[in-house]
Amino acid sequence: MSVDARARQRTGAGIGLLLALVLGAVLFRTLPEGGDEADGGCAPRTVGSWSADDALTCEFARYGDDAARSDDWTGGDGTHSVRLPDGRLLWLFSDTYLGRVYAPPNPSGESASWRDAAAPLVRDSAVLMRDGRLESTLPTPLFPDPAPGQWRRPVAARVEPRSPGAAEQVLRVLLWVRAAGQPPWIYGVPLATEVATLSLPGLRLESTVRVRDEQGVPDPSRRVLFGTTLVAEDGWTYVYGGDDGRPAGRQVSSAYVARVPEGGLGDPSAWEYWTGQGWSAGVRPGAVLGDRTRRGVGSAFSVVRDGRTYVLFTMAAGTAGLATVTSYWSCSPTGPWHGPARGFGPPLPGSGVAAYNPQTHPELSGGGRLVLSHDVNRLDPAGAAAQLNGDVALYRPRFLTLRLRNAR
Q1: What is the DSSP string of 218-284?
Q2: Backbone phi, then psi, for 19, in 5-degree steps?
Q3: pTM of the entire structure?
Q4: Which residues of 222-251 are buried (b: 16+ CB within 10 A; e: fewer)?
Q5: pLDDT tens string for the chain (408 positions)?
Q6: In b/e form, how buried is each residue of 333-345, taking b as 16+ CB within 10 angstroms?
Q7: Which residues contact 139 (CB under 8 A, 6 or more apart)?
């Protein structure tokens, strides 16, 4: 089946998939275990100031609007990034529009760029950036569907040795496997976590390995998918995940963490999970954050370390989570987490629009500034395809620059 045909089949179900996953999404990028609050300079941290990063936001708009090619990226969500050894930056997306963008006015007479209703929609995409300029879209889909009615979504990625101690490097990409489901699982039932291995520098998909299968857990809201973000430190890769509490009616989801020796992401036997008491293989993980009501995360989240402090950002719980980013802090990647702090509202393109999936991009951060992206989409999935085609700005990442300060 062609990409265009598959895309048209999926248009109704695919557009807002990550809205349900990450309206409560947390940005959670972390380093290894720390100590108590007084150890090693750990101190409470929160957002001191923020501003729109117009340069990055406009670069994605420029690339998406470029009509030089008809098979490249024009919009997407699930924004993740990874620096490659040759200096290029690879951007990974989930649901993605390809095709062309047309200049305003659109067919409704509004002054917004638009895409044709038949524009291809694929489950994943990857776009290459060099020296701050987006250059090309890799052939899609990069990660083929594992079975009929199932799909893969790329999340966090890192460059690591092909095996522990090896000199050759490869790119490993964490994947979420989901399947079509009935309400409340209209955006997909969580099935498993996989790891894809891609060659360097060619980015050829070599293999895909299932590292954790959750289909034996009867309640889909209790299934944990790993790969919201990851970080390498002291010979370990720490991998974070979340459950799907929100579709089950809880205000927030819970966060979990695993660790893998460097070079072992693609080896299921190398994974260990935090139980609440320590690390163990082959067990159900214990939550590191989440009380199922006010405190917790979404299925996509990430943390950054500022000095010896871990700062966790998330869309706020409840209705504020549609537009407000809040944060937690900890002296250890496994917690305890303190918060949530008072949030802030990133700019949104008009009314009836949700912000979700806040993600940090350490490859672009430094000098006291932290780059954070968030995705935008329509609040109501019904008719979303027509609305997103009618205004392409509603389905592209937006970027902010944050600066942190002491919380007290």
Answers
A1: SSGGG--EEEEEEEEETTEEEEEEE--TTTTT-S-B-EEEEEEETT-TT-GGG-EEE-SSSEESSSP
A2: -60, -50
A3: 0.88
A4: ebbbbbbbbbbeeebbbbbbbbbbbbeebb
A5: 443 444 434 444 344 444 444 434 433 333 333 334 445 689 999 999 999 999 999 999 999 999 777 789 999 999 999 999 999 999 999 999 999 999 888 888 788 899 988 899 999 999 999 999 999 999 999 999 999 999 999 999 999 999 999 999 999 999 999 999 988 888 899 999 999 999 999 999 999 999 999 999 999 999 999 998 887 888 999 898 999 877 766 678 898 999 999 999 999 999 999 999 999 998 999 999 988 777 888 767 888 888 888 888 888 877 666 788 889 898 888 889 899 998 899 888 877 888 888 999 999 998 889 999 999 988 776 667 788 888 999 999 999 999 999 986
A6: bbbebbbbbebbe
A7: none
Q: DSSP letters of 310-326?
A: EEEEEEPSGGGGGT-EE
- Which domains does the chain carry? 3-406 (2.115.10.20)
Separation of alpha carbons 298 and 240, rounded Å: 11
Report d(CA 8, CA 1) in Å as an integer: 11
Of the candidates 132, 133, 153, the residue with the CA atom closest to the CA atom of residue 143: 153
Cα separation, 393 vs 125, whole angstroms: 18
Q: Which amino acid is at 387?
A: Q
- Distance in angstroms (rounded) separating the CA atoms of residues 159 and 162: 9
Q: Taking Cα atoms as reference points, which of 86, 85, 213 lies closest to residue 158?
A: 85
Report helix, strand or coil for 345: coil
The Cα–Cα gap between 241 and 226 comes to: 4
Amino acid of residue 71: D
Six-digit token string for 48: 């001191």
Q: Which of 24, 15, 18 is nearest to 319 (CA)?
A: 24
Contacts of 267 (CB under 8 A, 6+ apart): 209, 211, 260
Q: In angstroms, rounded to a whole number, what is the distance separating the alpha carbons of residues 77 and 325?
A: 17
